[in-house]
Amino acid sequence: MPQAQDNLILTVEGLKTYFPVRGRRGRHVRAVDGVDLSVARGGTLGLVGESGSGKTTVGRTILRLLEPTAGRVVFDGRDVFSLSAGEMRALRRRMQIIFQDPMSSLNPRMTVGTIVAEPLAVHGLVPRNRRAGRVGELLERVGLAPAYARRYPHEFSGGQRQRIGIARALASQPDFIVCDEPVSALDVSIQAQILNLLADLQQELGLAYLFIAHNLAVVEHFADEVAVMYLGRIVERASRDALYARPMHPYTRALLHAVPVPDPARAVAHDRLPGEVPSPIDPPAGCPFHPRCPLTRQVADRLPQTKTITILSDGAPARVVQQCMCETPVLRPCRDDASHCHACVLQQRAEA
Amino acid sequence: MGDVAHNPTGGATVPPRLGRSLWSDALRRLLRDKAAVVCFVVIVIYALVAIVSPLVLSGWKDSYNYDNINAPPSHSHWLGTDVFGRSVLEKTLLGASTSMTVGFWSNILAVPLGMILGAVAGYYGGWLDDVIVWLYTTLASIPGIIRLIALKFAFMDHKLLAGTPLEMDLDGLAGLCLALAVTSWIGTCRLVRAEVMKVRELDYVLAARATGRRGFSILLRHVLPNVLHIGIITFSLGFVGAITSEVILSYLGLGVKEMPSWGQMIDAARMDLVVGRWWELAGAVGAMFFIVLAWNVFGDRLRDALDPRLKNV
């Protein structure tokens, strides 16, 4: 990591979150399987991956909304998982979350004012008689009229509801917010408004974001650093510019290809990834991406039979490089850019 | 409702407030709802009759008049007379006392019990859930009416709070209420447990945890208000269910004995209808009709009033 240790608000080391599988003793869904990352003060880390890659679980485990299986999360010098329940509740004032679904993240039987005032009440931040005024300020800050405090969530559109969720997250003046796909459920025209609001708030209040998304285009707009997740692990991590200019991992490349280009003249026939994300109960051996990886197939075509293995991928036989199935990939920095790490065995060997 | 954005109510001139609580909001809406008010008035009238009739009509039980038995409705007896020549109208009014007592007390015991156990089981899960589910599954494996009869027999010759000023004879009304309560919390518990398990996983509960609220406080503020409608519905349905159960028990000779009840009237009328004496049945059924209707409509409207999503419908 380029930043000095005290410049980081959050560091995550070896985070694992497993869920037991019902009825199958000893079997686990390895939703998060060894994740390292860090977020700088006032900075944004984009966490990208397709559905089921474990990115939401990472966000929730960091906030201890889910119990970790292993690993360490250090928030502003304090080990989050070793805190007592009371200490944890106090720390929650400083780390907040914005949810993906603006429908289910607001209690339908509470007024907007009560929802936004909840962090103030829980942490006793503002005396009761001044809470309404503070809620009005918060609503105004996110672009809503203070008079909306008396209304109920169902009276608002998706974008407005997301603003209410942001106001709630801001209420306790946090330093760090997990944005869990905050714009994925919104219309494209509204997405930009919410992203701009989040960017403004970050500049004004010095917030740090862990910005979770399944869309690299959204993150490009927003993040200083990007980490790409696949099946519970980070496969590539780099500064935004480096990642978009020179994606190293074949999965990152596939994700970048999947971003639609709004120009028919430039539309290129790109290779769709075969198959779907495998089950995190039995992840593939070696590199978990190998059954879908276009790179390993290309390389395998040029290698003698003895160095490849034929697997069944999406119903058809495919040749992959032996190493991809046998070696567990490790996130390593590129030779020429220490801040750019990736976990592709083939790329690492090509560089060496 | 989609244009809320372009129509802020009053804008900045409105003094900042967080909005009324769910309950005061519901009360305001109920008062504007004519059907709810009418039904509530009907319930209040029944309650008043239930309280006043035993005092005013205390002599009814011994008002035998063997010269005027089984008389059809007339000016002196609007609903005719029964097999002992007593007024059926007065009998119906006295029956309201029994039925309202049974309906009210059995549900005031059963619904909160079912809600608390169901909420605890659904919210905390684990061994608490196992114990509560085991309890109600075991009870539910006995058919309802047989469970009631068994309890009624078990309560015979026992007293509740014996030796205190509140001493109650379990053979009578108190025993009936208790037996019904022990039986009818199961349905509420099962429904509430399932609903709590659903609500507990919603993002707003997670948001409350992320805010730093304690588990129990989340249960009270976020989970229970969103399952309360089940309690309201089961209360109004349970009220009706208790009245009908009392009818069945009376028919089986296990109902209330010291007081007339609608159940006894229906039981008495079962042989009467064949010979054309319809008024005793009509009295009991008519009296039940209005209270059942009023409770159902009122329960429905109360549930709607407590749901802000239906505010302006």
Explain what the structure shows.
The complex is a heterodimer of chains A (352) and B (313). By secondary structure, chain A is of the alpha/beta class. Chain A has helices at residues 55-62, 85-91, 112-122, 128-141, 158-171, 188-205, 216-220, 240-245, 250-258, 294-301, 322-326, 345-351; strands at residues 8-20, 28-40, 44-48, 70-75, 78-79, 95-98, 176-180, 208-213, 225-230, 233-239, 308-313, 316-321, 332-333, 341-342. An 8-stranded mixed β-sheet of chain A has the order 6-7-8-3-9-10-14-13, with helices on both faces. In chain A, strands 2-1-4-5 form a 4-stranded antiparallel β-sheet. In chain A, α3 runs parallel beside α5 and α5 (158-171) runs parallel beside α6. Chain A starts with 7 loop residues before the first strand and ends with a helix. Chain B has one domain: MetI-like (MetI-like fold). Chain B is globular. Mean pLDDT of chain B is 84; it is low at 1-15. The A-B interface holds A 60, 63, 65, 88-90, 92-93, 95-97, 99-101, 104-114, 117-119, 122-123, 131-133, 135-136, 145-152, 154-157, 160, 165, 168, 172 and B 1-2, 4-5, 8-12, 14, 16-20, 22, 202-204, 206-214, 222, 225-226, 306-309, 311.
Helix content of chain B: 55-70%
Supply the CATH superfamily name of the largest domain in chain A.
Answer: P-loop containing nucleotide triphosphate hydrolases
The H-and-E topology of chain B, N to C, reads as HHHHHEEHHHHHH
List the total number of helices of chain A: 12
User: Low-confidence parts of chain A lasting 5 or more residues at pLDDT below 50?
Assistant: none
Mean pLDDT of chain A: 88
> How many domains, in number, for the residues of chain B?
1
- How would you classify the helix and strand content of chain A by structural class? alpha/beta
CATH top level of the largest domain in chain A? Alpha Beta
CA radius of gyration of chain A: 22 Å
The CATH class of chain B, by name, is Mainly Alpha
CATH topology type of chain B:
MetI-like fold
Taking the sheet with the most strands of chain A, its summary is:
8 strands, mixed
Distance between the termini of chain B: 10 Å
Provide the structure class of chain B.
mainly alpha
Overall geometry of chain A: elongated
* The CATH homology group name of chain B: MetI-like
Strand tally of chain B, please? 2
Number of folding domains of chain A?
2
CATH architecture descriptor of the largest domain in chain A:
3-Layer(aba) Sandwich
Question: Main beta sheet of chain B: strand number and arrangement?
Answer: 2 strands, antiparallel
